[in-house]
Amino acid sequence: MGHHDHHGAQQGSAHTQSHGQGHGHGHHGHDTELDWAAMIPHLEQNAEVTAPLYRDAAAWLRELRPAPATVVDAGSGPGVVSCLLAEEFPGAQVIAMDPEEALLERAAARAAREGLDGRLRTLRAELPEGIGELPPADLIWAARSLHHVGDQGAALAALGGRLTPGGALAVLEGGLPARYLPRDLGFGRPGLQARLDATEVEWFAQMRAGLPGAREAVEDWPTLLDAAGLRHVATRTFLLDLPAPLSEAARAHVMDQFTRFREGFAEALAPDDKGTLDRLLDPDDPQGLSRRPDLFLLAAHTVHVAVKE
């Protein structure tokens, strides 16, 4: 995929949540070029905190496709969700597919640590160009990876072409922006997160426009799946609901998100919002993220499933 989210599971908006499984959107200096290898700790933390949501999605997919022999994680990133899929589909061989060698090495190392190296292998390939290297698959999982491909329709068609008859393609795209804090923080201008969302929407549009072969398309995923020659069968949204008080790992994840907002979007933010972010990230501020008792994590991710007939 070259350009992918890699399950950046939980970033600031619905766009960037992802691929914690895999990649999230970077936020590097408001630049749309992403250094995936440098993002490995962020991607892994993202996916680990978001794992309950992915497990719920996998349980639902088991109802639709109970016993796949081959499962592909297309845009696997460092393999957190690839390993989760191997656990949730114990009879399957899992292929973690990604164009970034550093991420695949991390995925292989995780599989070895978790005793899954005999059931999980990696494949370095771009989407859609390298999709022909995949063996026929009974289930393909693509979590926030397609929106990093210029021609999403071509990518869907390529993935659908690797499915076995009756095989399913599960696309995680869309949902709702994550929320971490009350609307009124007790300082600064209320509504900070809504303004951060708007800034990130602009970033996402720039990123999409700059992709090779970028094609505009209505992000109606059931229609796009149908146009790719597949039959859309189901859509479901999964909730990640981690109420206050957060665990140490979840709090660290939220702090990382806000650090990335501050570093990546500084030029686009109003001075008062930059000041608010600085206070939130100050470890000595009693109303900062490291000390607030009201910090939570609430997000929704949508999965669309289509089958090859």
How would you portray this structure in words?
This protein has a 7-stranded mixed beta sheet with strand order 3-2-1-4-5-7-6, sandwiched between helices. The chain has 309 residues and is α/β, with parallel strands linked by helices. Helix 1 runs parallel beside helix 2, helix 1 packs across helix 7 and helix 7 runs antiparallel to helix 8. The N terminus is likely disordered. It is 35% helix and 20% strand. Helix 2 links the parallel strand 1 and strand 2. It has 8 helices and 7 strands, in the order αβαβαββαβααβααβ. It has one domain: Vaccinia Virus protein VP39 (Rossmann fold).
Write the layout of secondary structure elements.
Elements: H1 40-64, E1 70-74, H2 80-88, E2 93-98, H3 101-113, E3 120-124, E4 137-143, H4 152-161, E5 163-179, H5 192-209, H6 221-227, E6 231-242, H7 248-264, H8 271-280, E7 297-307
Parallel strand pairs: 1-2, 1-4, 2-3, 4-5
Antiparallel strand pairs: 5-7, 6-7
Helix pairs in contact: 1-2, 1-7, 7-8
CATH level-four homologous superfamily name? Vaccinia Virus protein VP39
User: And the CATH topology?
Assistant: Rossmann fold
The 3D shape can be described as globular
| Portion of residues within helices | 25-40%
- Report the CATH C-level class: Alpha Beta
Give the key terms.
309 residues; alpha/beta; globular; disordered N terminus; Rossmann fold; seven-stranded mixed β-sheet; 7 strands; 20% strand
Short structural summary:
With about 300 residues, the protein is an alpha/beta fold. The protein has a single domain, classed as Rossmann fold, CATH 3.40.50.150. Helices cover about 35% and strands about 20% of the residues.
